[in-house]
Design a protein that fits this description.
Distance between the termini of chain B: 59 Å
Structural class of chain A: mainly alpha
Shape of chain A: elongated
CATH class of the largest domain in chain B: Mainly Alpha
Oligomer: heterodimer
Helix content of chain A: 55-70%
CATH topology of the largest domain in chain B: Hypothetical protein af1432
Largest interface: A-B, 69 and 72 residues
Number of helices of chain B: 22
Chain lengths: 421, 442
């Protein structure tokens, strides 16, 4: 599942995805140009909807929660792919026209912005998949025999939606793997875990739009447009305040560095490495967030010391002193707005690993690694060796091995903090 | 229930009786009434009442009003309202009132729709009647809201209804079409499941809004934690940061600042001393006068603070306030010795607010001075240390709004308890060091 892979494999996968999307786009355009546009006013209405959705979209951020940042566009594209009737009259467009309209509308909506190729490729392939599953069945009349116009029609469309979401998850995992550089297994697992989430709810809106247009005609589109735009707005505000909160916590973390308690960039490095190790161990996205916040703030307790610890490394201190610093830090963390699990992780930093939750074990081990590997006398390899020797009591052997695997993939973690956005 | 005035109790009872009368025809109709649809909608409505912001209740009730006869539509809201969460007492009076209010409004909407919409109309033909019915719903609900405010909270009729109406009618225009779409799909061959999916986009939107509010609260708590981390080290500053934030906002409002800039300035005021986290605790708590060397170290705190909040995007120009809040107008301040207009506006605001609060709050080295004395002192130093515009603005703002220094935030006690066992508490009262830090006394 998680065999270490060369980065070239990942970029190769991304090239394949892009090539497939480009091939689909060219085929669809050629096909549509040859056969002409069926029912142009319907195509135009959906095109306008998707263009509008793309125009109000922001560039996607790198955070994991920003999976689908264009609800109007996504729902509109899927609704066109699954459209079988308009106000009682059957539609005649095929999958090629769906892909062509979505391509044209997405590009038109993104005018004046650098092209988001990953986003476009995913949108085209996912919509194409849904259209290829649905339109031939509809156009040959197979759907009229079953489920026909019955209450089973909506569950049938939802089933198609589930297949489409699976297809999208496979694509997204391939693309995100190239970005984070991890193995494919955990990336796919993350995407699959996120499936019953908000992105799928937005796509389900596409299903109900198709049904509503079938019953009420194209007037249904503006009715759905308003709530979807509201969704986009509230999503934007949510991501903005989330980013701000993250920045504030990172500032709080940097205060120990400025106070001279910890070496520069320590908290950031521990956070990044903890996240990678947690991903390697198969933690959920929520756990990874807890891990990241806890790793950022794990040294906060040192602020209340009268004199800084030498070099900020808590690892060589006596256990009682370490525990006291951990408890002080936990008390500070409890006053921030982060989930209380974060405070627990910080409080339990100095405990033997068998008494710690997994997240606390990861932070402790990664912190010890960064403390040890930073000193001149003890490079990264000897630091790992010392962690391995301490697996009887202090460090979880599984965590140490996961850390070793992560380090083997990216041998030299950056010693300087990356520049701020 | 008995805490309510008798008039309000009578009002609730009247509303419940009226709602019961509205629903009576459904009960009399017996099996002829559409009980299955009513029960399903009532169950959905009860589930929606449990959602954090109750945004879905209105479209479900409107769909009920469009689908069912008035008497049955009145029953849809009842189970949800009676089982819903109520935070304040009296619980049952509130629940019954809520149920009766929603029933009457749904009944009114259903009447309006039945009167205006041709039977079996298509979606577009039914849209104007649906909007009219949604407006009737909101109007009825708003009128009843005003009645209960008038009787239970003894507000004047003007205050009871003022500000209620335009805000109450807006959601109707959004939810009316959604409710109609639900009703149309419900009646179509695709059935109730397809109809209930119509509520999805609305629920996603309210889910994000809920998460947004929670995350915002978390952010504010984190800012407070940053400030309290300073309190851990420097114990003069209990509540000082919050008050400087408030005074900065007072000045800025007087100068006509608004919106995001005002918010950023508030946070800059709160965070102005954050750089003290970088100063050794031993120095901040030192007894007795500081050596020039130690003073130089303490004067680094604006630069430390600026460095720390560098990554917080929304602070933007307010970061300059953190860096320059110890600059003086005549150029004798620190860290850069800027003078006059070279000092950013936000920094000039925070400097005045900082000095004002330093003088008017009790420190361990000095008692609080009255506001008038502090203002006189600020005027004396304006032109050399402070920007006269800002001092005047503060004076004007204090005349309009007054100054209410509510004492320390509740978290401070907690930090006190944490420090005690660690042996970090200074034994003696700290001395004048703070005066140089807050620089307010000129």
């Amino acid at each position: 599942m998680s065999a270490p892979s060369k980065p070239s494999n990942a970029t190769l996968a991304v090239r394949w995805v892009h090539a497939a999307a480009a091939a689909a786009a060219v085929t669809a355009l050629a096909w549509t140009a040859r056969g002409g546009v069926a029912q142009p006013q319907v195509a135009f209405a959906y095109g306008v909807l998707i263009t509008l959705g793309e125009a109000v979209r922001r560039r996607p951020t790198a955070t994991a929660e920003a999976r689908e940042t264009a609800p109007v566009g996504a729902a509109g594209a899927l609704a066109y792919a699954l459209l079988g009737e308009v106000g009682g009259r059957p539609t005649t467009h095929g999958p090629a026209q769906v892909v062509a309209v979505v391509l044209a509308a997405t590009l038109a909506g993104a005018l004046g912005r650098p092209p988001a190729r990953d986003h476009l490729a995913r949108r085209l392939l996912t919509t194409g998949f849904a259209a290829v599953c649905f339109q031939p069945l509809h156009n040959t009349g197979a759907l009229d025999r079953w489920p026909g116009h019955s209450p089973y029609y909506a569950p049938f469309l939802l089933l198609l939606l589930a297949l489409t979401a699976l297809c999208d998850a496979v694509l997204a995992a391939a693309l995100s793997r190239a970005r984070t550089g991890g193995p494919y297994g955990p990336a796919l697992r993350d995407e699959l875990r996120a499936l019953p989430g908000i992105g799928t709810a937005i796509c389900a809106t596409g299903v109900v739009m198709a049904l509503a247009v079938a019953v009420a005609g194209l007037w249904a589109l503006p009715v759905f447009c308003l709530p979807l735009l509201l969704t986009q707005l509230s999503f934007r505000r949510y991501t903005a305040v989330r980013a701000t909160c993250h920045q504030t916590i990172a500032s709080l973390a940097r205060s120990t560095e400025i106070a001279g308690h910890t070496p520069a960039g320590h908290a950031r490095r521990v956070a990044a490495l903890s996240r990678a190790t947690g991903r390697e161990l198969g933690l959920t996205e929520a756990d990874l967030t807890v891990l990241e916040y806890a790793a950022l703030m794990h040294d906060i307790g040192q602020l209340s010391l009268l004199d800084p610890v030498p070099a900020g490394a808590t690892e060589p201190l006596p256990p009682a002193e370490r525990r006291r610093i951990a408890l002080l830090g936990g008390a500070v963390v409890r006053q921030t707005g982060v989930p209380s699990e974060v405070a627990v992780v910080v409080e339990r930093q100095a405990d033997p690993f068998r008494e710690q939750p997994l997240t606390a074990r990861i932070v402790r081990t990664v912190n010890a690694y960064d403390d040890l590997a930073g000193t001149a006398a003890c490079g990264p390899l000897r630091a790992l060796e010392r962690l391995r020797l301490a697996t009887a009591h202090d460090h979880d052997p599984q965590v140490v091995e996961a850390l070793a695997r992560v380090l083997a993939r990216a041998p030299c973690p950056p010693r300087t903090p990356p520049p701020d956005p | 229930m008995w805490a309510l005035p008798a008039v309000a109790r009578g009002c609730v009872a009247c509303a419940v009786v009226a709602a019961a009368l509205c629903a009576a025809p459904a009960v009399r109709a017996g099996t002829a009434a559409p009980w299955a649809a009513t029960a399903l909608l009532a169950a959905v409505c009860a589930a929606c009442e449990r959602l954090p912001r109750r945004t879905l209740t209105l479209p479900v009730l409107l769909a009920g009003a469009f689908l069912l006869p008035p008497a049955a539509a009145a029953l849809v809201a009842v189970p949800g309202a009676l089982a819903g969460r109520v935070e304040q007492r009296p619980v049952w009076a509130r629940r019954w009132w809520h149920a009766a209010q929603l029933s009457l409004a749904a009944c009114a909407a259903s009447y309006v729709f039945a009167l205006t919409a041709p039977s079996g109309a298509a979606f577009t033909a039914a849209l104007p009647p649906a909007l009219a019915a949604a407006l009737a719903f909101s109007l009825a609900a708003a009128v009843l809201d005003g009645v209960i405010r008038f009787t239970a909270e003894r507000r004047s009729p003007r205050a009871a209804w003022c500000g209620l109406l335009p805000g109450a009618l807006l959601p109707a225009l959004v939810h009316g079409p959604t409710g109609l779409m639900t009703a149309v799909l419900w009646r179509s061959a695709y059935g109730p499941l397809a109809a209930l999916l119509v509520l999805l986009p609305m629920s996603v939107s309210s889910w994000f809004l809920d998460r947004y509010e929670r995350e915002r609260a978390a952010h504010q708590a984190t800012i407070r934690a940053l400030v309290q981390a300073v309190d851990l080290k420097d114990r003069y500053t209990r509540g000082h940061s919050e008050r400087v934030g408030r005074a900065s906002v007072l000045i800025a409002r007087e100068l006509g600042l608004a919106g995001e800039r005002l918010e950023a300035l508030r946070f800059a005021g709160i965070l102005h001393d954050i750089g003290k986290l970088g100063i050794p605790t031993r120095l901040l708590r030192k007894d007795g006068p500081l050596t020039p060397e130690e003073r130089r170290v303490i004067e680094l705190h604006p630069e430390y603070g600026h460095e720390m909040v560098r990554g917080i995007g929304f602070l933007d120009e307010a970061r300059a306030a953190i860096l320059h809040h110890h600059e003086r107008l005549d150029g004798s301040g620190y860290p850069y010795g800027l003078s006059g207009r070279q000092i950013p506006q936000f920094a000039r605001i925070v400097a005045v607010a900082d000095a004002f609060d330093a003088m008017t709050s009790t420190r361990s080295y000095s008692r609080a001075r009255p506001v008038a004395t502090a203002m006189a002192e600020l005027h004396r130093c304006s032109g050399t240390q402070f920007d006269p515009h800002m001092v005047d603005a503060l004076e004007a703002a204090l005349e309009h709004h007054g100054w209410h220094p509510t004492v320390t935030s509740e978290g401070s006690l907690l930090t006190e308890c944490i420090i005690l066992p660690s042996g970090n508490v200074p034994s003696a009262r700290d001395s004048v060091t703070g005066a140089t830090l807050h620089g307010g006394e000129g």
